[in-house]
């Protein structure tokens, strides 16, 4: 059975949002795409009061404030809609996005976007799922913060499974951008400790990580380790 969360995600898909906006003859005047290259650093502060950002393709890490530590990073991917505050003093102080892969996003003029939503009565089907998605990301960040260093590494790898390529029932390729630096950053550990933990997983025949893409070669065994070490599952 499809969960209520999955139903929300269906209603808030990239294509649904774009299809609804394109019905308006002024769409091309107020919405446009940007191609973004892997490694690009995007200062988002000027988007307040101007644009919503809809990710059509690719992966990003969002730092809610440029002055925060790397532990504050939030993982973004296709379908995520960045809903910035319209108040003079936003909740996020100075957000910065870094592209983890080549990507495309839409910049949607705030005034136009809101006008279409209200005119077509789409607020519940688009804005609520968008907020729900961000709430989920913050909850994932909360769960990760309660784990020890090894637990955070296992948690991050488990999370990356959701975005991997399923080779077969028990093998999955993790995203191409995923490497030791990204793992260490998202788990809030040192690169050295991340490498040490991966060595243990390789020794158990669970992970291949010497070349890209990394491959979980025994998903069932990895799952059993996560359960044994009380790593919260991500549904």
UniProtKB/TrEMBL annotation:
The family database entries (SUPFAM superfamilies) matched by this protein are listed as: cAMP-binding domain-like, Winged helix' DNA-binding domain
Assigned keywords, A-Z: Activator
What is the recorded name of this protein? Answer: Crp/Fnr family transcriptional regulator
Lineage start? Bacteria, Bacillati, Bacillota, Bacilli, Bacillales
Determine the domain of life of the protein's source: Bacteria
Identify the InterPro entries for this entry. Answer: cNMP-bd_dom_sf, RmlC-like_jellyroll, WH_DNA-bd_sf
Answer whether the UniProt record assigns the keyword Cytoplasm to this protein: no
């Amino acid at each position: 059975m499809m969960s209520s969360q999955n139903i929300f995600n269906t209603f808030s898909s990239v294509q649904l949002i774009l299809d609804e906006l394109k019905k308006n003859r002024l769409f091309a005047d107020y919405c446009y795409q940007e191609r973004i290259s892997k490694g690009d650093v995007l200062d988002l502060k000027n988007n307040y009061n101007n644009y919503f950002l809809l990710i059509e393709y690719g992966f990003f890490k969002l730092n809610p404030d440029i002055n925060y530590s790397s532990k504050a990073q939030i993982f973004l991917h296709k379908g995520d809609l960045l809903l910035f505050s319209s108040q003079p003093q936003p909740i996020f102080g100075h957000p910065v996005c870094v592209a983890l892969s080549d990507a495309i996003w839409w910049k949607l003029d705030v005034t136009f976007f809101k006008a279409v939503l209200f005119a077509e009565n789409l607020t519940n089907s688009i804005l609520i799922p968008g907020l729900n998605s961000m709430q989920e990301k913050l909850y994932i960040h909360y769960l990760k913060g309660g784990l020890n260093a090894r637990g955070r590494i296992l948690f991050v790898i488990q999370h990356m499974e959701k975005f991997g390529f399923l080779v077969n029932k028990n093998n999955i390729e993790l995203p191409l951008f995923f490497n030791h630096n990204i793992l260490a950053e998202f788990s809030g550990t040192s690169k050295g400790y991340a490498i040490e933990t991966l060595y243990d997983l390789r020794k158990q025949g669970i992970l291949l990580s010497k070349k890209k893409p990394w491959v979980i070669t025994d998903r069932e065994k990895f799952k059993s380790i996560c359960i044994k070490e009380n790593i919260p599952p991500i549904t």
